[in-house]
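Reminder to self: tokens first, then the designed residues, so the page reads top to bottom the way the pipeline ran.
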């Protein structure tokens, strides 16, 4: 009887005693399932079985398993098709592939896609059991290390930050380190990645946590009001200054001032912010007396500030003053193992807000969610889950209740709606309206960012918005 084709040689340090662990088998042959169940149950393992991919994915979404035995040949999607999706949502789950065909090409492909081992039918029972114990033992050792890291993180207030991916755990390690200092932090990340959440976490775990956290979206404040907003003004400093008003620097004294979208700040205001950072002093508009403050600055940007410096749109000295510690937030497409956790986090929240039993995603809906590129990042995922909950008619959200951009129907819908009664020009106008509206929503209604995406001047985008009667919405938080 052929032995298992070992991809990663078992490490004796990870071997488990018999009778420990939950195993999922996905195989369409009843005889194979029964044979494996008998073997593994006699060894004390708890066995769950599925005869095709969708039911197996549903089980993985609802239950925890220590190992997956996955058949290469399945009806519909093959095991090799399912493997990358399973590893994306369950990266730590060991997967042993089972097949009647021992082709070397399959072994190489299984290695590339993340399989632990490749077992050829018929298998050697002792060898298979040894490989299973080794894989489960190794996973548990890794989980112990992970649990130690998570226990450490429980000391910190990482409210609403959801994720188990390595990149997020490393990010939270960095946040915990920098929180204790008084250094300026520059947070980089695409729109919708949660930059303000990270800023709040830094503040909440700093010695300033009992003092004010004052956020300001620089890009949302008109340029002619920004200086007054930051530094305040005296009565009569300008035409509409009917009373003296404190600025945000003063409001954040002894606390933290968060400057979001710092890259949109006008050069004149940049110079005054630089001086306030260097001297820890400033003057209100219309004032002659300097005001001293003790403020920690956290700044965030979704643009390349170094490129902005080269183009003369951002002061080099202010960039270096802000970039003492740099924190890079990954886009959602680079932390796919966090998507199911984030999706369920939002589903639970919106279910509660709407007075509904907690909703879940159907296997087909989860497949669409996992396959989507999420250009709008966490904010786009949040909006998609809210829509799903609101439109749901049962405990599971189905693909037709998700946004059109996940199902691929966004612009075909425009054609179907207008093709029978509209001219070509009217159809193209409707498609243009939807494309621009969709991008604006993904950019949190930031017209400058949308114009940059379309590679057109801001003035051109504004003309299109006006011509197409696109209703602009208020911009939310990161």
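Designed residues (478 positions):
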């Amino acid at each position: 009887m052929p032995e298992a084709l070992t991809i990663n040689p078992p490490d004796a340090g990870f071997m488990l005693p018999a009778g420990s662990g939950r195993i999922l088998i996905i195989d369409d042959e009843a005889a194979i399932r029964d044979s494996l169940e008998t073997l593994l149950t006699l060894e004390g393992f708890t066995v769950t079985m599925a005869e095709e991919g969708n039911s197996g994915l549903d089980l993985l979404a609802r239950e925890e398993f220590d190992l997956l035995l996955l058949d290469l040949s399945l009806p519909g999607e093959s095991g090799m098709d399912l493997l990358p999706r399973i590893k994306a949502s369950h990266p730590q789950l060991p997967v042993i592939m089972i097949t009647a065909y021992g082709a070397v090409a399959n072994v190489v492909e299984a290695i590339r896609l993340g399989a632990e081992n490749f077992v050829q039918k018929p298998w050697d029972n002792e060898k298979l059991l040894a490989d299973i114990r080794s894989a489960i033992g190794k996973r548990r050792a890794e989980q112990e290390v992970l649990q130690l890291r998570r226990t450490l993180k429980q000391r910190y207030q990482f409210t609403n930050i959801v994720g188990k991916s390595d990149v997020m755990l490393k990010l939270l390690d960095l946040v915990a380190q920098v929180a204790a200092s008084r250094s300026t932090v520059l947070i980089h990340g695409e729109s919708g990645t949660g930059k303000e959440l990270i800023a709040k976490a830094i503040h909440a775990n700093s010695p300033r946590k009992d003092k004010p956290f004052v956020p300001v979206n620089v890009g949302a404040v008109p340029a002619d009001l920004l200086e007054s907003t930051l530094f305040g003004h005296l009565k009569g400093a300008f035409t509409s200054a009917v009373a003296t008003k404190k600025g945000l620097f003063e409001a954040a004294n002894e606390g933290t001032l968060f400057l979001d979208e710092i890259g949109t700040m006008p050069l004149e205001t940049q110079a005054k912010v630089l001086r306030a950072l260097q001297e820890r002093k400033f003057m209100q508009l219309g004032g002659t007396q300097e005001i001293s403050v003790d403020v920690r600055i956290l700044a965030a940007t979704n643009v390349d500030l170094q490129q902005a410096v080269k183009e003369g749109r951002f002061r080099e000295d202010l960039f270096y003053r802000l970039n003492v510690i740099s924190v890079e937030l990954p886009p959602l497409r680079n932390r796919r193992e966090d998507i199911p956790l984030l999706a369920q986090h939002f589903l639970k929240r919106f279910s509660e807000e709407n007075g509904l039993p907690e909703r879940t995603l159907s296997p087909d809906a989860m497949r669409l969610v996992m396959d989507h590129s999420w250009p709008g990042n966490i904010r786009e995922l949040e909006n998609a889950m809210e829509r799903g909950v609101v439109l749901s008619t049962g405990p599971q959200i189905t693909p037709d209740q998700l946004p059109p951009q996940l199902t691929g129907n966004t612009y075909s819908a425009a054609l179907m709606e207008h093709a029978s009664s509209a001219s070509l020009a009217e159809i193209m106008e409707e498609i243009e309206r939807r494309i621009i509206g969709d991008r604006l929503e993904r950019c949190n209604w930031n017209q400058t960012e949308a114009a940059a995406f379309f590679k057109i001047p801001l003035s051109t985008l504004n003309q299109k918005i006006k011509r197409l009667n696109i209703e602009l919405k208020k911009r939310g938080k990161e």
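The chain is about 45% helix and 15% strand.
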